[in-house]
Amino acid sequence: MAGGRTGGALGPVRRPRLPTGGTLLRAGLVAALLGLAVLVLDSGESCPGPGPAAPGPSATAPDRPSGVAATEPDGRPAGAAPGGGRSAVGAPTEGPAAGGTRVGGGRPGALPLPSGSVGVPVRLAEPAALAVLRPGARVDLLVVPAGGVEAVPLASAALVLDVVGGDSADGSSALYLALGPDQARRTVGQPEGSRFTVVVRG
Fold first, then answer.
1. Distance of alpha carbon 35 from its chain centroid, rounded?
2. Comparing C-alpha atoms, which of 173, 189, 177 is closest to residue 140?
3. Residue 140 CB-density burial (10 A; 0-12 exposed, 13-18 middle, 19+ buried)
4. Rounded to whole angstroms, how far apart are CA atoms 51 and 120?
5. Where is this region: Disordered (predicted)?
6. How far apart are CA 99 and CA 112, in angstroms?
7. Which tens digit of pLDDT belongs to each residue from 47-93?
């Protein structure tokens, strides 16, 4: 009897499909790629990062009397020795132990700083005296303190290492002397406005 059906028409029963060989191959490739990506990420995280940048050098120049040059006209820092010995601030410097060489025109070049000495650049109150001085000469260094009238000896028979800008008329000339540590301290410790002069020894 047709009216005996209470439900809808029954469809055919579908069985689940088993994965084919191509599907399994694609799944294996995806798994391999994921594993490779994890290894790459792990190796990237283990690499050390860049180190901190080194701080830049800084220095504060101490006050100097007007006659003591802070820097020399040829670009050397004050007290930078052309040869072995110590600079004006007492730091060891390196250089040849041989005597100075001659530069263009036959003028003697700078002498090396003797061991145990301190190199001090000095601006003279009378720059004309530089015209008769050469590296290797011996001079007595005198100073007239600011406000004074009498010259006070600072160093006797000091060795002239170099004469910088002897022909210059702009006040940039300086006399580079080799002094003992105590003599160097007295020279750079002169008050502002002190005037330096030298007496050339024969």
1. 51
2. 177
3. middle
4. 40
5. 47-112
6. 6
7. 555 555 655 554 444 455 556 655 554 445 454 444 444 444 343 34
Cβ neighbours, 10 Å, residue 11: 6
pLDDT at 77: 45
| pTM for the predicted model, two decimal places | 0.50
Residue 199: C-alpha distances to residues 3, 72, 99, 161 (Å): 144, 22, 23, 16
Q: Which residues of the chain have pLDDT under 70?
A: 1-22, 40, 42-108, 166-171
**Separation between Cα atoms, residue 11 and residue 63, nearest integer Å:** 106
Give φ, ψ of 184 to 5 degrees.
-65, -40
Tokens at residue 130, please?
A: 């530089």
Please, which residues bridge with residue 119 across strands?
A: 178
CB 100 within 8 A of CB 136: yes
Amino acid at 1: M
Q: In Å, what is the CA distance from 38 to each residue of 11, 33, 34, 44, 174?
A: 47, 9, 6, 10, 70
> Hey, what are 178's tokens?
């080799």
